[in-house]
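Researcher: Please translate sequence to structure tokens.
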Amino acid sequence: MAAATDSGDTAWVLAATALVLFMTLPGLALFYGGLVRTANVLSVLVQCFAIACLVTILWVLVGYSLAFGADVRGVIGGLDKVLFNGVTEDAVMIGGSIPESLFATFQLTFAIITPALIVGAFAERMRFGAALLFAGAWSLLVYAPVAHSVWGGGLLSEWGLMDFAGGAVVHITAGVAAVVAAVTLGPRRGFPGRTQPPHNMTLTFAGAAMLWVGWLGFNGGSALAANGDAAMAVTVTHISAAAGAFTWLVIEWFRYGKPSALGAVTGMVAGLGTITPASGFVGPAGALVIGVWAGAVCCFATNFMKRTLRIDDSLDVFPVHGVGGALGMILTGVFASSALGVFSGQLDIAIGRALGVQALGVVVTVGYTAIVTWIILKVTDALVGNRVSDEEETEGLDLISHNEQGYTL
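Model: Translation complete:
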């Protein structure tokens, strides 16, 4: 008997797909755009937009097949789904109740936002051509293999790694790639003494609000069904976002005497990124604890990166997404166990074994991402040159890269 789609499941994942794309365009683009100098706002918007286009094309050509094609030794997908081969109108996702075309498009939105997140690390100083070349190569050589390993039946999934919506696949890979890029390209001129504050916090705040709403589809849609798992994922996602934002805000209030809008929205993103791997496995109380930890740990990591290590990860991608993703992966191993009673999710697993698998998954993802990202950056630098000149950086990438300005008032 042929598998059939469920109209309710299909409707929910259709909505979730739109929500996740909304996170990148316009959510992430506006969030990042408001954080850079006036002379670079358009460059950030165009980079996010162009990456969405490029990754879509690559996903159809070969990316989807590499991520979700037939398993090749637990490392990568085969080429059986090149050009969406077999993804017809009547094709149903194996073991699911939604059309495969919808599954492929939902996963595409994850493949889009992950390299777009890395833009925040090299904002204001990377050539447009180099950024696109890097994003394309990275999506095929880093994102697709990790996605296959975790979600496509690869090695990490065989180990029992728990990553419901992308703690390792999205946030650790993007965060680690970001810090490698920041170190490889070097800091912006004047860092850390003369870097400019965000030019438009209103844009950033609006983008952050879009990310919060879109993230409900990001995590809730990962259930791939309109059921209790999706409902709980939405619930815990919202709780963690609120707890992360409020924790960061309170920390700033005590340390500096005034809470900032930037701190509140950054804490929100930290809470969202940290709950992502756990969102299908934990309950509301666990989400509250995870959100508080996210706000506190990522706040410390952000200050440590800039003030102690002096690494110019321009828009704090690694301390928020990389650290938050890794923290969330580890805490998933704690709060997913039914041994914790009120904090538990649905899994009857031993905490010790779960923590071991989660930690190993984090180490493998970090190591693989760091090595391959560094190689890609070296190749792109040799081919087209990664960084703009000092004079071009001073003038701003809006005019240098696009001969346009974000503002003409």
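Researcher: Any highlights?
Model: DSSP finds 14 helices and two strands in the chain.
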